[in-house]
Design goal:
The chain has 363 residues and is α+β, with helices and mostly antiparallel strands. The protein has a domain of 252 residues: Beta-lactamase, CATH 3.40.710. The chain has a 5-stranded antiparallel β-sheet with strand order 2-1-9-8-7, sandwiched between helices. Strands 3-4 form a two-stranded antiparallel ribbon. Helix 2 crosses helix 6. The two termini are 34 Å apart.
C-alpha cells in the first residue's frame, strides 16, 4: 500500500511540473540584447503592444527611404507628380555607391519604376534621382522629409540624407527612434498603393538586364507580411520596419540596431507573432445582399408554363426497390444478438450453481 502511495505521489509531481513548464513555454519572451530598440503597434488603433527603448535615438539607415516614398506619394495624390512622369538621371545619382541599380546619366525612367528600385533594391542612386527631380536638390527634398516627419508627430527624428548611408566627413547622421518609425509606418499602412512596392520580392529592371531582389526576407517567412523595409550600415546595425495583416488585423513591428541580420529577422518575426496574439481577429465584413426586383406576372406565368409543359418539373413516381442484402444483414444481427443473450443467461446460471455447490461444501 505504501509503494502505491509513493507511486501516485510521484505521478502527481511529474504532472504538476509538466503543466508549469507548458505554461512557461507559451510565454513569448524577447531578449533585451539582440537589438538597440523595438516597438510594436496595432496599425488601426495605434495602440502600443510592445516597447523596448522605443524613444532611444538610433540610426535609421536605409529604412528612411520609407519617408522618401511617403513624400513622393503625397505629391502624386495631390496631382503635382505622375507615376508615368519621366525622371532624367543626374551625374550625382550616377556617382552614388552602395546598393544601386546602376543608373546612367543617359537614361530616363518613370517615377514608378524608380520607386520599385527604391523599395526592392534599396537603390541609393534611385533615391537621389527621385529627390532631385521632385525638389531640385537633395537638400530641398530632405527639408520636405523633415516637414513630413513634423506633421506626423515624429518628435525625435531628424533627416540629413535621402538614402540613409553613413555620413561623409563634416556631415550629420540621420537620427530617429523606433517609436517615430512606428508612426511613419502606421501612416504608410493607410495607403494601399504603398504595398505594391513593399511586397514585391523580385522584379526586372531595365528590361531584364538587372534583376532586383528584396532584402526583406520576412515577406517569404511571415504569413500576411507585405512590407516594409530593411536598413543597415556598420554603426547603425541591422534594422527593419515590418508589417503583416491577418484576420482583419495589421501589426507593425520595428526592430532597430541588431548586430546580426538573422537575429533581427527572428526578433521581428517573434514581435509580429506577439502582436497578433494580443489583438483579436476581426470578422470579415460581408457585403449587404442586393434585393432583386422581379416582375410578378412574368414569374407566375413562367412557373405555370414550366409545370404544365416540362416533364422534368412534374412529380414522378419513385420505383420501389427491395434490397436483399439488407434482409440478410438484419437476420445475421438478430442471430448474433440471440446467441449473446443465451450465452449471458448460461453464464449467470452456471455461476449461481457453482456458488451453491461452494456453500454446500463449506457448511
Amino acid at each position: 500500500m505504501k509503494n502505491i502511495q509513493c507511486f501516485i505521489g510521484l505521478l502527481l509531481i511529474l504532472f504538476t511540473w509538466q503543466i508549469a513548464w507548458a505554461g512557461r513555454a507559451q510565454l513569448a519572451t524577447v531578449a533585451a540584447d539582440p537589438y538597440a530598440s523595438a516597438f510594436v503597434l496595432d496599425a488601426e488603433t495605434g495602440k502600443t503592444l510592445f516597447s523596448k527603448n522605443a524613444d532611444a535615438p538610433v540610426y535609421p539607415a536605409s529604412t528612411l527611404k520609407l519617408m522618401v516614398l511617403a513624400v513622393i506619394l503625397d505629391r502624386i495624390e495631390q496631382g503635382t507628380l505622375q507615376l508615368n512622369e519621366m525622371v532624367q538621371i543626374t551625374v550625382e545619382a550616377y556617382k552614388m555607391g552602395g546598393s544601386q541599380v546602376y543608373l546612367d546619366p543617359k537614361e530616363q525612367f518613370p517615377i514608378e519604376e524608380l520607386l520599385y528600385a527604391l523599395m526592392i533594391q534599396s537603390a541609393n542612386d534611385a533615391a537621389v534621382a527621385l529627390a532631385t527631380h521632385v525638389a531640385g536638390t537633395k537638400e530641398e527634398f530632405v527639408a520636405l522629409m523633415n516637414q513630413k516627419a513634423e506633421e506626423l508627430g515624429m518628435k525625435n527624428t531628424k533627416f540629413y540624407s535621402v538614402h540613409g548611408l553613413p555620413p561623409s566627413k563634416g556631415q550629420h547622421v540621420d537620427v530617429t527612434t523606433a517609436r517615430d518609425f512606428g508612426i511613419l509606418c502606421r501612416y504608410l499602412s493607410t495607403r494601399p498603393e504603398v504595398f505594391k512596392y513593399t511586397e514585391t520580392r523580385v522584379r526586372d529592371f531595365r528590361g531584364g538586364e538587372f534583376v532586383m531582389r528584396t532584402h526583406n526576407h520576412l515577406l517569404e517567412k511571415v504569413e500576411g507580411c507585405d512590407g516594409f523595409k530593411t536598413g543597415y550600415f556598420t554603426k547603425a546595425g541591422f534594422s527593419i520596419a515590418a508589417t503583416a495583416k491577418r484576420g482583419g488585423v495589421r501589426i507593425i513591428a520595428i526592430v532597430m540596431g541588431s548586430k546580426d541580420r538573422k537575429v533581427r529577422d527572428a526578433k521581428a518575426i517573434e514581435l509580429i507573432a506577439k502582436g497578433f496574439a494580443m489583438v483579436p481577429a476581426k470578422p470579415e465584413k460581408l457585403l449587404p445582399a442586393t434585393p432583386v426586383k422581379l416582375n410578378k406576372k412574368v414569374e407566375t406565368d413562367t412557373i405555370q408554363e414550366e409545370t404544365a409543359g416540362s416533364p422534368a418539373l412534374q412529380p414522378q413516381p419513385q420505383p420501389t426497390t427491395t434490397d436483399s442484402s439488407s434482409g440478410w444483414n438484419k437476420l445475421f444481427i438478430g442471430f448474433v444478438l440471440g446467441f449473446l443473450s443465451c450465452a449471458a443467461l448460461n453464464f449467470f446460471v452456471l455461476r449461481k450453481r457453482s456458488r451453491n455447490n461452494w456453500r454446500g461444501k463449506r457448511f
